[in-house]
Specification:
By secondary structure, the protein is an alpha/beta fold. The chain folds into 2 domains: 4-42 and 201-267 and 357-407, 3-Layer(bba) Sandwich (FAD/NAD(P)-binding domain); 51-110 and 129-197 and 268-353, D-Amino Acid Oxidase, Chain A, domain 2 (2-Layer Sandwich). Helices cover 32% and strands 28% of the residues. The strands form 3 sheets. Strands 3, 4, 5, 6, 7, 13, 14, 15, 16 and 17 form a 10-stranded mixed β-sheet that branches. Strands 8-2-1-12-19-18 form a 6-stranded mixed β-sheet, sandwiched between helices. A 3-stranded antiparallel β-sheet has the order 9-10-11, with no helix packed on it. Strand 18 (360-363) and strand 19 (370-374) form a beta hairpin. The radius of gyration is 21 Å and the shape is globular. The structure holds flavin-adenine dinucleotide. Flavin-adenine dinucleotide binds next to helix 1, strand 2, strand 13, strand 16 and strand 17.
């Protein structure tokens, strides 16, 4: 018989997890502070790249930071007032660059996101929006031989895990994406990948289907969690108290606030990113393009072309600084000088990022009736559906297809 499950969060991770749980016959209620798909899952780059198994922190990362911070077109920003607060997270991030940890994280990421296309296609087809999932290669471009060679470790990590790649010279780049500026010397094509043509519509469609299938979504912000002998028994929300039998936390960048209420602190940061969507760019971009040095993606979407990237550490509640979006606009001009920018929108979202680039997935270490799926950082769209399937397997008592040990909630706690 199904359980009564309360799930916090209606981003892609929460909605996908709720969908898989409902499919198993559980009585599932989603509580969310924002309408489905209107928080970080609203505006990402849409990439479903199962090749994206390279953790953010790689050997040599520390040496690159001063260059990133001083380059006006750089991908990283730490607001001065927040620098001290984020230091412990950054220290853990830098420690994650040790070789052994990088290999471990790459294995765990690859295992998680390898089935991303198959999971998303299945969920989207059921929700009547299969058209949103596009199978496609993507292109990675470099302005110099030097920066191309500088990425060799990342490409090896991918290839060692079965990712197929194809080296390209400047002429091949322009054959594939003719409107790309002739400033790129080298590139890499990654076949058999995919993207979502509208991440917001996808999350909303999955949420609507979940409701049609008998699930419930309530607009409630969780303010506190009551814990007793048998684990969590009640949530305090902005619209009253809700009794809980089984709880699943999928609250994106706010999940750390909730796990702290449960006595399980996690080093989770809001790694803020930006996008600019051009509704009439007058460009024909046949596949997503990634500029490795600038850490950004340009993705063709149903509502135009989107450029997305940037990593800004300013705290979860700080107002957006749209100068970061202007940096993306300057990159867009550089990549596609013909871009028509009259009708464009800017956006900021909070990636839920752990310092080792791995999400928190699986059972609570303290409470028998609590499960977690959050902290997917740069890969929450990719990892959302596969994570939901794994958590549903765990709750149903089926053996998850992936070993969940690398994602355990207490991995940063000193061993007792
Ligand atoms: C610029 C940018 C580009 C990106 N590109 C990609 C990409 O191409 N591919 C990819 O895989 N990933 C990408 N990402 C990352 C991806 O968007 C995120 O990892 C993902 O959206 C996180 O989803 P989520 O469901 O965990 O969180 P969110 O979408 O943030 O949802 C969190 C949910 O929790 C709810 N919530 C929070 N606190 C409470 C509370 N106390 N009570 C009730 N509800 C609560 C919120 O209301 C919301 O519904 C990108 C991110 C950014 C910023």
């Amino acid at each position: 018989m199904g359980r009564k499950i309360t799930l916090i969060g209606a981003g892609i991770v929460g909605v996908a997890t709720a969908s898989y749980l409902r499919r198993d016959g559980h009585d599932v209620t989603v509580l969310t502070a924002h309408p489905p798909g209107e928080y970080c899952s609203f505006g990402n780059a849409g990439m479903l790249n199962s090749s994206g198994c390279v953790p953010q922190s790689l050997p040599g990362v520390l040496a690159k930071v001063p260059g990133y911070l001083t380059d006006p077109l750089g991908p990283l920003m730490v607001r001065p007032g927040y620098a001290l607060k984020v230091l412990p997270w950054l220290a853990r991030f830098v420690l994650s660059a040790k070789n052994r940890r990088v290999e471990h994280a790459a294995d765990a990421l690859r295992a998680l996101i390898k089935p991303t296309l198959e999971c998303h296609e299945e969920l989207a087809r059921h929700a009547g929006c299969g058209d949103l999932i596009r199978r496609s290669p993507y292109l990675v471009v470099y302005e110099s031989e030097r920066s191309w060679r500088g990425d060799a470790r990342a490409w090896n990590l991918r290839r060692e895990r079965g990712v197929v790649t194809e080296d390209l010279d400047a002429a091949a780049l322009r054959r594939l994406v003719p409107q790309l500026a002739p400033i790129y010397a080298r590139g890499m094509l990654v076949p058999d990948q995919g993207y979502v043509a509208n991440p917001e519509r996808l999350t909303k469609a999955l949420a609507a289907q979940f409701q049609k299938d008998g699930g419930q979504i309530l607009a409630r912000k969780v303010l506190d969690i009551a814990v007793g002998e048998g684990g969590v028994h009640e949530l305090v929300t902005d619209a009253g108290r809700i009794a809980v039998e089984t709880l699943v936390v999928c609250a994106g960048a706010h999940s750390g606030e909730l796990t702290a209420m449960l006595g399980e602190k996690v080093p989770l940061e809001a790694e803020r990113g930006y996008h600019v969507t051009y509704s009439d760019p007058r460009l024909d971009i046949p596949m997503p393009v990634h500029v490795s040095d600038a850490k950004l993606f340009v993705t063709p979407m149903e509502m135009g072309v989107r450029i997305a990237g940037q990593a800004e550490f300013a705290g979860i509640h700080a107002e957006p600084d749209y100068r970061r979006a202007e940096v993306l606009e300057r990159h867009m001009q550089r990549m596609f000088p013909g871009v028509h920018g009259a009708d464009r929108t800017q956006w900021m979202g909070r990636r839920p990022s752990m310092p080792d680039s791995l999400p928190v997935l699986g059972a609570s270490a303290r409470h028998g009736n609590v499960y977690y799926a959050f902290g997917h950082g740069h890969l929450g769209l990719c990892g959302g559906a596969p994570s939901g399937r794994l958590v549903a397997d765990l709750i149903a008592g089926r053996k998850p297809a992936v070993d969940l040990a690398p994602y355990r909630v207490n991995r940063f706690q000193p061993r007792g």
